[in-house]
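Board notes (copied after class):
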Amino acid sequence: MAWCRWILLFVSLSCLLCPLYASEGDADPVYRACIEQCEKTGCVGGKCFQHCKFSSDGKPIDGPWYRQEPLYQKWKQWDCHSDCRYYCMLAREEEREKLGHKPLKYDGKWPLRRVYGIQEPVSVALSALNLAMQFHGWLSFFILVYYKLPLRPNKRTYYEYTGLWHIYGILAMNCWFWSAVFHSRDVELTEKLDCSSFAALIGFGLILSIIRAFDMRDEASRVMVSAPLIAFVTTHILYLNFYALDYGLNMKVCVAMGVAQLLIWAVWANFSSHPSRWKLWLFVVGRSFAMLLAVYNFPPYWGFVDAHALWNVANIPLTYLCWGFVREDAEFRTITLLKKVK
């Protein structure tokens, strides 16, 4: 059966999505020697850094006020060590490229070039675009259910899942906001916020898929489904923030919940007679292929476009499809309920 083949595909994807995060570049002796030399001299090649100058007691000397970085730019937190690592990485990769060697990962990431202090400019721009797409989708849904479709006498919508999709939209916008911040500057705080918001979005997406696919309308059923999943996701987020910030573990947990969510939508679309189920099929297929970008994590093109940036690109049309289905589902359910009332 078709849905059995989809189950096999999703299981295969979940097994594949276990990327390795060890960085060969960090162990490169030339790279390590460059960092040590930079922290002593404050220079890499012909480029020197003012904040790599230290006094006799080991405190950094920032120089006169007019040579210091403006306050509005200090959020980047580029210090001597991080600048040395960045420019040594670029210098080492230039040497390796001349020798015909492939790029290496450093600190778990491919060598990406900064622009005005922004660590991953392409991913930042695409995250912001995804945020705008999520806002547009949520706003169009809000206008539809409250201003275009008829309301109940108590001014509530006929669509039973309005509140759930509002929560989903808020979590999605929050997720893409922190994604943009994280790709602007990768520090512990921004990574925690990015991982936590992504886990919260995927976890709630799983809850929403179960409630909608099984058409759960009473509060008791919804609580029975939501409570254990909310407890699991909350525990996972607390673990990341207060015990160990394990990016690999977070990816595995999110991929498992994401695969389960897609599997539920695929099975429901296969057996449902919903007029917009074809959009769900496109969403499921598109998201499944987008996941492959996490498996084949290739080196960046031109120092800016990596697999994660393309993952962000893939999410733009998928967001449009998702909210398109939600709007049509609201119309379908409202019309169905109005016919029953009449």
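Comment from the instructor: Strands lie at 43-44, 47-48. The mean pLDDT is 83.
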